Amino acid sequence: MQYDFDHAPDRFATNSYKWNVAPNELPMWVADMDFAAAPEIIAAIQKRLDQGAFGYNIVPESFKQSIVNWWQQQHAFTMQTDWILYCTGVVPAISSIVRKMTAVNDRIVVLSPVYNIFYNSIVNNQRVVLESQLVQTEGDYTIDFADLEQKLALPETTMLIFCNPHNPIGKIWDRATLQRVGELCLKHDVLILSDEIHCDLAHQGKHYTPMAAVSPAIAAQTIMCVAPTKAFNIAGLQVAAIVVPNAELRQQVDRGINTDEVAEPNTFAIQAAEAAFNHGQEWLAQLIAYLEANRQLLERTINEKLPAITVMPADATYLAWLDCSQITDDTTDLCHFIRQQTGLYLSDGAIFGGDGKQFIRWNYACPRERLAEGLEKFIVAIKNYQKNH
């Protein structure tokens, strides 16, 4: 079956978080695709809707089995169904795990620039953020292992929140890097909380390795958060899974998410997730091919029209990380200017920490015609900005 990604539902004035903008604005910021969900998912939801009753729901074994099957088929990683816990989302899972598995004033390490909500989950729970800044050389980011170990070795450090693939830079960490990170956490008795929500959006020819697949010892120190929501654009259905191979840790995490009341599915969550994992492989393959062509258009256009801006290389996600350091060291001001001038709404990199203040994050998961419109606006705005600054 050939799926249609050239047309998208009109989400303006539908209570969409992304599209809660003025009529003349074009949002390409938050990590939410404009495409309709896979027809297989819509059919599963429709079948549930036709039942007409929407009471409380359980988490069936079939939900866990669909995840086990998907990770085996897609990522060659063997899970056990009893490792898997349901949660309403990766962010609620992270916040709950921080609360349950660490103590007030503990230090929690992140590798920055990184998904901005990690900071919220730490600070809002009265823990302390320790940033280990990634090092950028010749278009690639690497981990400063000396700095990372120094921070992991502190007696107050109890957790590393890891991100693979890494948002916003789109890097898939290779097995050797994962092993080195994992072994440092074992050495210093630091729990690994690994957000792997973007794993199914690996670019063509790229391969993702789960942190828990590196070794049994590292798996026993790892809590992994996964979901179908990014790859299949169903974030509003609030469905995720926490994968915990270590039974003792799993019992604590289970207690935490149930105490926080984030362990019960809504009426459509299970059906949508199972449809995605059981029947969504071909839709996802076509989506990734479409996104690849979108990325090529974005890179080609910016390289040709705006040589002062560099599109950083990436292995995964539909988020482009744009280096604007030749234009400004304040992309907050630049993004405000772009939006005011043209209505194009992008994410300024400062919110991600690290060297993010020189970067813009661009969500290109939309019909190609819409991306072309956004690029036209971007070119106009950047050229006007360069004239005025």
Order of helices and strands: EHHEHEHEEEHEHEHEHEHHHEEHEEEH
Estimate the strand proportion. 15-25%
The domain tally reads 2
| Principal-axis shape | globular
Which range best describes the helical content: under 10%, 10-25%, 25-40%, 40-55%, 55-70% or over 70%?
Answer: 40-55%
Q: What's the pLDDT, averaged over the residues? A: 98
- Please name the CATH architecture of the largest domain: 3-Layer(aba) Sandwich
Q: Which strand order does the major sheet show?
A: 2-10-9-8-7-3-4
CATH topology tier name of the largest domain: Aspartate Aminotransferase, domain 2
The level 1 CATH classification of the largest domain is Alpha Beta
Structural class: alpha/beta
- How many whole angstroms does the radius of gyration measure? 21 Å
State the distance separating the first and last CA atoms: 50 Å
How many individual helices? 13
Number of strands: 15
Q: Please outline the major beta sheet.
A: 7 strands, mixed
Low-confidence stretches: none
CATH superfamily of the largest domain: Type I PLP-dependent aspartate aminotransferase-like (Major domain)
